[in-house]
Amino acid sequence: xxxxxxxxxxxxxxxxxxxxxxxxxxxxxxxxxxxxxxxxxxxxxxxxxxxxxxxxxxxxxxxxxxxxxxxxxxxxxxxxxxxxxxxxxxxxxxxxxxxxxxxxxxxxxxxxxxxxxxxxxxxxxxxxxxxxxxxxxxxxxxxxxxxxxxxxxxx
Amino acid sequence: xxxxxxxxxxxxxxxxxxxxxxxxxxxxxxxxxxxxxxxxxxxxxxxxxxxxxxxxxxxxxxxxxxxxxxxxxxxxxxxxxxxxxxxxxxxxxxxxxxxxxxx
Lengths: 155, 103
Prior knowledge:
Order of helices and strands of chain A: HHHHEEEEEEEEE
Distance between the termini of chain A: 57 Å
Oligomer: heterodimer
Structural class of chain A: alpha+beta
Number of helices of chain B: 0
CATH architecture of chain B: Sandwich
């Protein structure tokens, strides 16, 4: 019996399915190539999340602006927008410190795309929301606390 | 196959603003059903947007993104009538592609 093989198959299962689909032509190759950054999305603390992007300790920057409510009444839908005024912004990452999976979304911006994205995220509890920006090869960040009201008890 | 996305793209003063509303459960894998069994994670992992075959945005989502994800972004260029194509793939390999003409 080769138990190790079984474990390997399990671990690689998710990736394998994508690969097979790509091979069968169901997914366009360019989409399958943009490998999902599993390390980042499974990071359990901020340092691990930063490390997954090889960001080290990003410097806080006033040129990165997070638009999010101070108090979110519904944690399931919290609108978050990030604007970067830094030149050559190539990546924007939204992280929520106290979520089980902190990295919510990453946006890769090719040249010509404005560093201004908005989306909606889930938040389990009151937490700092981080926006990390990669501009000209360097990492910057900003954070903003969003209070999540649970059960309408006020915050 | 998932429901279609609602995409709005409007060009103004040389900048095209795109708003996308996807239809997806975005299940985190953290929740349990009434019997206590964990509901398996099911969420969009990757998204790409193309303007006339030129990539204008690629994004990766985690399970923290809300149900029926909303996304808005802007890119320079784009004119009325140009084609904008948005595609996503989820962690179960489902995929959906929709296209609109820039208004």
